[in-house]
Amino acid sequence: MASSQSQPAEYSTLASAAGPLRGALIIRRLCVLLNAERVYRELSTILEGESDLDFASVMVQALNLILLTSSELSEIRDLLKQSLVNPAGKDLYVSLYASWCHSPMAIISLCFLAQTYQHASAVIQSLVEEDINVKFLIHLDKLIRLLETPIFAYLRLQLLEPGRYIWLFKALYGLLMLLPQQSAAFKILKTRLKAVPSYSFNGEQLKKMPSGDPYQFLHHMPDGYKTIEDGDVTEDCGSSHNGINFAARLQQFQQMQHQHRVHTKAQTKSQNISTSLPKHHMQQEAQKEEEPRRPQSIDINVPPSRSKRGPGQLQL
Prior knowledge:
two-stranded antiparallel ribbon
């Protein structure tokens, strides 16, 4: 039997469903027996300093999915929803953020859960070309489908107050712009955003829009005004709210993603070298095999050693 070291790097992500299910069950059971917040804080601290970036990314994605879907973690979700008004929720948000930086979708999910919509929009805007790959789009598809579950019912209801939750709209439209138009996730999110009734926009906002399109409010915010993280429109309040330095958090996320990009490029380069070396070696071997087979000069005066003679015929 082959050793575990011989398995490809993608083995953990392409394993059969039984493995992830057992892992999720173990995490959920630990949260029940110990304490869900304690378990997640400890795992976040470990993953924050994990040197194996691929492993850390896979683990964070798994933990994030458990956080968003498991009934055993409903108390943590409720606490995170109060991150902007409750010191305990803020501490948990900051604690998870450090390791959740390993995955863009995990960070965006955490921001939606904590209702830090302005920061979610900033994270989406910070993504670069290398970040938007097939793996990213698969995780984005899962997130869009999760937004349609009862866990995010509060978020969908907030869409009825676009003037208050303008950054939620901007974040969702940002995700919409990243999705391929023919994908199912694009159609789901677009349908949800179109479902917002026009009466949810106040009259003053509609008057300022020449075409009457209520969604143009995203481009008509007065200068000098911002929407702080709890959804209230106010004057520019800077990059910090309720003790959370969002500018520092964004820089932390960007630095971690830079490490992942460097790691991915190094892996790609290593794979290209490893695949090119065997080809070069095979070409050298083929040349060596062809060298003895080159036709040698034949003396026409010397008869071949293995001439065919018919019966009763002499060799000349």
